[in-house]
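Continuing from the previous page...

OK, I double-checked the sequence for Metal-dependent hydrolase against my notes and this is the correct one:
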Amino acid sequence: MEVTYYGQSCVVFDFNDAKVLLDPFIRYNSLAKDIDINLLKPDYIFLTHCHQDHVADMKYIQSNSGATVAAIVETAAWVRKQGVPDDKVIEFNFGGTLSLPFGKAKMVYALHTNSTPDGEYAGVAVGYVFFVDGKKIYFAGDTALTLEMKLLEDLQLDWAFLPIGGHYTMDVDDAIKAAKLVNCKNIIGIHYNTFPPIHIDTEEAKRKFEANGLQLYLPQVGESVAL
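Thanks. Re-ran it with the corrected sequence; updated structure tokens here:
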């Protein structure tokens, strides 16, 4: 089981040979210029919300791969409007858990706005917890620090993907608090360094996490991490 980072909040999980893509934003990210998205053939695409920097490559990759797209109801409606067939869209909502061939995926709370690239209402931003082969992985998506995270502390999470860039989401200091709220020591940072407002000092970020007894992983674009 591993995850490959493609910049911003875009990752691909390899779950028992099932490829699960989160928040595809590659061709418009200068940090991911060396990535050939034609090689990405996910079985599933999960969207945390509908902002451009999370959905820009959804339709292209879905058309190339035939992937099934999962999202909150209103974002799923936008996905259909992009021409994704109904039988390739899974809409669900908070509290819902999908049972899929690779494991389970539960939709959880995120504190963030949500609209389509053209400014229409797209529901509420979300996060996900994946349950695969006894491992529990939290993908926070875009979110501010919120006490709702404490509801996850008893899951004994193995990994948490947390935004650390600030400005639009949590910054490093709030992400450290979030890691403690969800009771997870292994953190992979997302949503940072893509454009000026979210540039951070990565070495300082790692030092701060380490000082709090946490491990912050910041893989390079295209790099994989074993889970």
